[in-house]
């Protein structure tokens, strides 16, 4: 059993809390039983599996499956696991997997496109919501929070490994490409004259949403075919972007029956 916080493996895994280390090591963390189970369901290979004895006892079948999928398995103390994890009270298991590049989603019906999203909880929630609403996938600007941030994985509630999504190196070019393919782009803007339920979302549609504080950049907003607003009561400045995305996605779902 690993019990020392000075163990080289423990030090290496703790570094994966940082974006630059995830990129340098080309690894990221899977924290918790639910996220691990989601990865194993799609046969994602594990590089390292660290777990407590209590977790192994509680989840013997999942432990066996994870052990077979991992290159290295380590039994660790509860203190070591807490040091490796980013959560305050982890549930007994942390694994690592390799970072892989993913192709741009093949949008044909409904997609969510996001610019400069900074909050990992927001991004994870939008992944989960887009999957629930039946979207084709999600496209994210490269200056946003990393897809493999631990909070993104947790907030996506297991959809992370199944839902098509990618980061775009040139979001403007990609949006122009989809427009040429016949997809309309609907952007949310606070001063738009149309409300979001007044536009026809039954056609192939990309929903375009911007940064939590600054909103959409003028450059991307100008590409949109239509701008829509989400009405707010007096004194309320804005909605959380994940809530706004949910309203838009489910309005599209409602219109499509």
Please explain how this structure is put together:
The chain has 257 residues and is α/β, with parallel strands linked by helices. It is 37% helix and 21% strand. It is built from 11 helices and 11 strands. The protein has helices at 8-15, 19-25, 33-41, 53-58, 60-69, 78-84, 120-132, 150-155, 171-180, 218-221, 241-255, and strands spanning 27-31, 46-51, 70-75, 93-98, 110-114, 137-141, 165-168, 184-188, 194-195, 205-209, 226-229. The strands form 2 sheets. A 7-stranded parallel beta sheet has the order 7-6-5-10-8-11-9, with helices on both faces. Strands 1-4-2-3 form a 4-stranded mixed beta sheet. α7 runs parallel beside α11. The longest helix is centred in the C-terminal third of the chain and has 15 residues, at 241-255. 40% of the residues are buried. The mean pLDDT is 96.
Order of helices and strands: HHEHEHHEHEEHEHEHEEEHEH
Structural class: alpha/beta
Helix content: 25-40%
Number of helices: 11
For the largest beta sheet, what order do the strands appear in spatially?
Answer: 7-6-5-10-8-11-9
Summed up:
By secondary structure, the protein is α/β, with parallel strands linked by helices. It has eleven helices and eleven strands.
Topology:
Layout (H helix, E strand, L loop, with lengths): L7 H8 L3 H7 L1 E5 L1 H9 L4 E6 L1 H6 L1 H10 E6 L2 H7 L8 E6 L11 E5 L5 H13 L4 E5 L8 H6 L9 E4 L2 H10 L3 E5 L5 E2 L9 E5 L8 H4 L4 E4 L11 H15 L2
Parallel strand pairs: 2-3, 5-6, 5-10, 6-7, 8-10, 8-11, 9-11
Antiparallel strand pairs: 1-4, 2-4
Helix pairs in contact: 7-11
């Amino acid at each position: 059993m690993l019990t020392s916080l000075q163990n080289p493996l423990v030090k290496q895994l703790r570094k994966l809390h940082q974006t630059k280390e995830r990129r340098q090591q080309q690894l990221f963390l899977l924290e918790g039983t639910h996220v691990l189970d989601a990865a194993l369901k799609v046969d994602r290979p594990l590089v390292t599996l660290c777990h407590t004895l209590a977790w192994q006892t509680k989840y013997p079948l999942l432990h066996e499956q994870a052990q077979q999928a991992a290159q290295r398995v380590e039994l660790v103390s509860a203190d070591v696991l807490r040091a490796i994890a980013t959560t305050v009270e982890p549930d007994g298991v942390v694994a690592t997997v390799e970072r892989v590049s993913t192709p741009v989603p093949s949008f044909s019906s409904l997609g969510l496109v996001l610019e400069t999203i900074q909050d990992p909880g927001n991004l994870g929630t939008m992944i989960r919501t887009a999957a629930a609403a039946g979207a084709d996938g999600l496209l994210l600007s490269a200056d946003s929070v990393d897809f493999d941030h631990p909070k993104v994985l947790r907030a996506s509630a297991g959809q992370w490994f199944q839902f098509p999504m990618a980061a775009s190196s040139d979001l403007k070019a990609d949006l122009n490409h989809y427009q040429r393919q016949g997809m309309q782009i609907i952007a949310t803007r606070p001063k738009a004259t149309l409300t979001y339920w007044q536009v026809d979302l039954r056609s192939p549609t990309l929903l375009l949403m911007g940064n939590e504080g600054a909103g959409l950049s003028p450059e991307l907003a100008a590409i949109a075919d239509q701008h829509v607003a989400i009405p707010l009561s007096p004194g309320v400045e804005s909605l959380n972007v994940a809530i706004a995305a949910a309203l838009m996605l489910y309005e599209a779902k409602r219109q499509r029956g």
